């Protein structure tokens, strides 16, 4: 006896999201539906006809179902796709279950460096150091290892230094659909003013409650180590590296240590 029951499109997408760690895009959903139809045929062929509008409608329906039933997780749109996330108010129990202590966060210098890259990308290390006024070798190395920053190519400046930009993981961590969702200067000024007003009455007392409109930064493992000296951090570019663009297997040490001293000129 065949007990197979044809699921709804929202169920199929929900199952995909359940087993997927990275955001799932419309294009990927359509590819899976079409590949399944080609391999299995029969009734699975009907789903291969689903277009973007139908897929988005199914995701919206799935999102409403999860929200209305209060199952502890929800669908969120991030980095050009969708993923399942646990409800924030369930965090204390999950932290105990996973034996997580106080979440380690990026240090303020690391956040500043990451913000400069996000708003000025693509940019070279010397530009970042010109804004911050200090060396950023160790911090850049950490951001590369955490996959929040990536190498996007070589600059035409003397020494052809690496140019840096943010990654999809950066957008996932900060809940951005795209880089266009980064706060504008006016919004940043309003946030800063609101924080200043909240701090003023309690400057000598306990910290003020969190502003619900404040941009929240998720917990990210690791904190940038102490910045090494220039002699320790800066190497030379070999002839082989000169024509190389950001290999996937390159380590952060190779990238940071591989810039020519001329880039600092």
What does this protein look like?
With 265 residues, the protein is mainly α. The protein has two domains: 9-97, Arc Repressor Mutant, subunit A, CATH 1.10.10; 108-174 and 218-264, Arc Repressor Mutant, subunit A (Orthogonal Bundle). The chain is built from twelve helices and five strands. It has helices spanning 9-19, 26-40, 52-69, 91-97, 108-120, 125-132, 137-145, 168-173, 185-199, 230-233, 239-242, 252-257; strands spanning 73-78, 81-86, 123-124, 149-154, 162-166. The strands form two sheets. A three-stranded antiparallel β-sheet has the order 3-5-4. A two-stranded antiparallel sheet has the order 1-2. Strand 1 and strand 2 (81-86) form a beta hairpin. The radius of gyration is 23 Å and the shape is globular. The N and C termini lie far apart (76 Å).
Topology of this structure?
Layout: H1 9-19, H2 26-40, H3 52-69, E1 73-78, E2 81-86, H4 91-97, H5 108-120, E3 123-124, H6 125-132, H7 137-145, E4 149-154, E5 162-166, H8 168-173, H9 185-199, H10 230-233, H11 239-242, H12 252-257
Antiparallel strand pairs: 1-2, 3-5, 4-5
Helix pairs in contact: 1-3
The helix content is: 40-55%
Mean pLDDT: 75
Derived structural class: mainly alpha
CATH homologous superfamily classification of the largest domain: Winged helix-like DNA-binding domain superfamily/Winged helix DNA-binding domain
Low-confidence stretches: 212-246, 261-265
- Strands, total number: 5
Class of the largest domain, according to the CATH hierarchy?
Mainly Alpha
Give me the number of helical elements.
Answer: 12
SSE string: HHHEEHHEHHEEHHHHH
C-alpha end-to-end distance: 76 Å
CATH topology of the largest domain: Arc Repressor Mutant, subunit A
Strand order of the largest sheet: 3-5-4
CATH architecture of the largest domain: Orthogonal Bundle
**In oligomeric terms, what are we looking at?**
single chain
Which strand-content bin applies to the residues? 5-15%
What is the total number of structural domains? 2
Question: What is the CA-atom radius of gyration, in angstroms?
Answer: 23 Å
Major sheet: size, sense and barrel closure? 3 strands, antiparallel
Q: In one word, what is the shape?
A: globular
């Amino acid at each position: 006896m065949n007990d197979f029951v044809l699921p709804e499109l929202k169920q199929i997408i929900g199952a995909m999201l359940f087993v997927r760690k990275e955001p799932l895009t419309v294009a990927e959903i359509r590819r899976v539906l079409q590949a399944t139809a080609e391999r299995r045929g029969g009734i699975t062929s009907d789903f291969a006809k689903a277009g973007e509008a139908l897929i988005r409608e199914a995701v919206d329906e799935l999102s409403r179902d999860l929200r209305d039933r209060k199952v502890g997780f929800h669908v969120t749109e991030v980095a050009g796709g969708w993923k399942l996330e646990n409800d924030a108010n369930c965090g204390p129990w999950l932290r105990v279950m996973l034996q997580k202590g106080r979440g380690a966060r990026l240090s303020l210098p690391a956040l500043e460096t990451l913000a400069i890259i996000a708003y000025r990308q693509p940019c070279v290390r010397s530009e970042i150091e010109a804004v911050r006024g200090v060396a950023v070798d160790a911090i850049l190395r950490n951001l590369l290892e955490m996959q929040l920053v990536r190498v996007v190519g070589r600059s035409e400046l003397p020494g052809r230094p690496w140019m840096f930009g943010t990654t999809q993981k950066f957008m996932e961590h900060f809940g951005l659909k795209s880089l266009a969702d980064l706060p504008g200067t006016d919004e940043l000024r309003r946030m800063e003013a609101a924080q200043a007003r909240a701090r003023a009455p309690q400057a000598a007392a306990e910290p003020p409650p969190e502003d619900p409109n404040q941009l929240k930064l998720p917990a990210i493992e690791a904190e940038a180590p102490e910045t090494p000296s220039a002699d320790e951090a800066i190497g030379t570019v070999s002839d082989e590296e000169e024509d190389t663009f950001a290999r996937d297997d390159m380590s952060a040490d190779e990238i940071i240590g591989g810039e020519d001293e001329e880039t600092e000129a």
